[in-house]
Design goal:
alpha+beta, D-Maltodextrin-Binding Protein, domain 2, 8-stranded mixed beta sheet, 7 helices, 15 strands, 22% strand, binds 6-O-phosphono-beta-D-fructofuranose
Length: 322
């Protein structure tokens, strides 16, 4: 087996031991979630749980199981002050916050509409720091993230981290349970001819997104002068992993159906971590009008318009908004 282990990579990078412990807890939680996802049909964990989360979305049994695994595993960390989970309405304070303590934001199981069809799902997470003793602010801009990451439960389970050293991908070895470095430097090609959007919402989009879609679907006869390809898995982690591996742009814009909620995807534990990863890999991340990492959230479960991926394409979409 080749490739250094997760701990070795984090230690060699000089990460503080408290952060390494927390990241190892997160890796353990992801390993446990991967196991539950793989055994879902055998344990009767598909279908609906019969409950709704804070956002009014139907919960799946595995959403709840994955959330419980994260809470049980990550609360071991002595420097973790608070948790913000997609599945929990309130911020969970674990201790009196001290300067330098960590805040963990996570979507325990993203793309869970794919569970019943045995397609890829993932976990997204982000770590920030408490600014000073007693500070209970969790509404911080994404540029303050210390680490952003995701786990992809695909044919292989992967952990992808942006922790100040570019973007690194680790693969879970089935059997030993060890995450080993397999993608030392993930970068997003600047140019792309591939986009991802839920095109069934076309009639609800605003003019700049309609114009972008018209341009790329016009192909070589249109203003872009080349053919584009489209992909839509309906699982953000799977979509972003593809974009990190071969380029592309992912859009979940504001539209007439989601405008009153502010968009579709959640800022603190979905979009901001992905934006940090994408920027660290050389890509771009915007709402269309603002850089995502500069947004100061107004509430923990805030939603936001999202455009992420290859830099020149993201810049082009931002220009269409101007
Ligand atoms: O968390 C939301 C999510 O499941 C994302 O993973 C995915 O990109 C999106 O929703 C899919 O949206 P839609 O249901 O419109 O295809």
């Amino acid at each position: 087996m080749s490739g250094p282990t997760l701990r070795r990579v984090l230690t060699d990078a000089g990460q503080p031991s408290d952060l390494i412990f927390l990241l190892e807890d997160i890796a353990s939680a992801c390993r446990a979630v991967a196991y539950e996802v793989r055994n879902g049909p055998l344990k009767g964990n598909l279908g609906l749980a019969g409950s709704e989360n804070v956002q009014g979305e139907d919960q799946k049994p595995l959403d709840i199981i994955a959330n419980d695994i994260f809470v049980a595993t990550c609360t071991n960390s002595p420097r973790l002050a608070a948790l913000v989970s997609e599945e929990i309405e309130e911020v969970v304070w674990l201790k009196e916050p001290k300067e330098g303590d960590y805040l963990l934001f996570f979507d325990p199981l993203d793309g869970s509409s794919n569970l019943d069809t045995n397609l890829s799902v993932g976990t997204i997470f982000s770590i920030m720091k408490v600014a000073e003793d007693g500070d209970r602010t969790v509404l911080k801009p994404g540029r303050e993230q210390v680490v952003a990451g995701y786990a992809l439960y695909g044919p292989a389970t992967m952990l992808v981290l942006a922790a100040g050293q570019g973007v690194q991908g680790f693969t879970l070895h089935q059997g030993s349970g060890i995450f080993r470095l397999t993608q030392p430097r993930m970068t997003i090609p600047e140019e792309t001819s591939e986009f991802a959007i839920n095109a069934s919402r076309h009639r609800h989009w605003d003019a700049p997104i309609k114009r972008y879609y018209d341009e790329v679907t016009a192909g070589r006869d249109g203003p872009r002068g080349r053919d584009f390809n489209m992909r839509w898995v309906a699982s953000m982690v799977a979509e972003m992993h593809r974009i990190l591996m071969r380029g592309g742009v992912f859009l979940y814009p504001l539209d007439d159906r989601n405008r009153d909620k502010g968009g579709r995807l959640r800022l603190l534990y979905e979009v901001a971590p992905m934006a940090m990863i994408v920027e660290a890999a050389g890509g771009g991340a915007t709402t269309g009008t603002e850089r995502i990492l500069d947004l100061v959230p107004t509430e923990p479960h805030q939603r936001i318009a999202t455009v992420l991926g290859s830099k020149s394409e993201v810049d082009h979409i931002a220009a269409l908004h101007r």
